Amino acid sequence: MNNLKAALKGKHALVTGASRGIGLSIAQALLQQGAKVTIAARNQSSLEQATEQLSAFGDVFSVVMDATNADSIAQAVSQAQAYFGAIAILVNNAGQAQSAPFLRTDLAQFDAMFDVNVRSVFMCSQAVLPKMLENSWGRIVNIASTAGLKGYSYVSSYCAAKHAVIGLTRSLAMEVASKGVTINAICPGYTETELVRDAISNIMRKTGRTEEQARAELSASNPQGKLIQPEQVASAVVYLCLPASSGINGQAIAIDGGETA
Questions:
Q1: How far apart are the C-alpha atoms of 201 and 196, rounded to whole Å?
Q2: How far, CA to CA in Å, does 111 sit from each of 98, 208, 234?
Q3: What domain of life does the native source organism fall in (predicted)?
Q4: Are residues 109 and 144 in the same domain?
Q5: In this structure, are 154 and 185 located in the same domain?
Q6: pLDDT band at 245, cuts 50/70/90?
Q7: What are the phi and psi torsion angles at 17 (to 5°)?
Q8: Strand, helix or coil at 58?
Q9: 152 catalytic, yes or no?
Q10: % of the chain residues with pLDDT over 70
């Protein structure tokens, strides 16, 4: 553990969508390994609560940012780099899922899924990559989903967006492969977060199932028979950020108990 802490000491990491769930766990894990972490999200009060919680683990700074707005991203990145220096690690965690049968999925929902899940990755990566290339070192980790590796019913726009994230990851990884920067994606299965709790509530409302039955339905997709925990995703992200992980590039790594094996 001490060696890992030394490996990330002094590195500045920006984690989007970090006020809760997977993003919060990733921020904590990076802090525990010695990184200085800027957390970004849209809600000021949620950020303040997260900052207070994370401050026990290391140096943390927060910025209000709308990951779908280029001006907001530019301002947040500028604030973060003024506070902690050049961003060496970017974790594109901001995302959202909406469900509907394909024939009831309108263009507004389709566009929203691409805005928050794909455009945000594109714009945030463009904002921080120049400094990484200038310093010949950087890590970008995109939080995708098993929905980027396979299809699921009733979430066609979300699946399409997450497939696009993986395509973007692979393409950009090839562009920067010889420049000291790696680009990878993590693809969690159903994870114990507010997003999944919302899905459980949706199943209960539409089917009349109990919470236990709805949770069991989602857990059944994992061969291990349980939901993924945010800490499991965070551990994988930390590994990809280590200097020793430089040989891993352009990969989409599933954290799903074997669902996509």
A1: 9
A2: 11, 31, 28
A3: Bacteria
A4: yes
A5: yes
A6: very high
A7: 55, 40
A8: coil
A9: no
A10: 98
Helix, strand, or coil (residue 5): helix
Please indicate, yes or no, whether residues 64 and 155 belong to a single structural domain of this protein.
yes
Sheet with 36-41: strands ordered across: 60-64, 36-41, 12-16, 89-92, 138-143, 181-188, 252-255
pTM of the model: 0.93
**Angle at which helices 70-84 and 120-135 cross, to 10°:** 30
- What is the domain extent for residue 221? 192-227
pLDDT tens digits for range 231-243: 999 999 999 999 9
The predicted pLDDT at position 196 comes to 76
Give CA–CA dist 66/80, Å, rounded. Answer: 14
Neighbouring residues of 150: CB distance < 8 A, sequence distance ≥ 6 = 260
Q: Is residue 1 part of a domain?
A: no
List the CATH number of the domain containing 68: 3.40.50.720
pLDDT band at 4 (very low <50, low <70, confident <90, very high): low
Beta strands in 177-238 (DSSP E): 181-188
Whole-angstrom distance, CA of residue 36 vs CA of residue 49: 18
Cβ(189)–Cβ(259) below 8 Å:
yes
Task: State how many domains the chain has.
Answer: 2
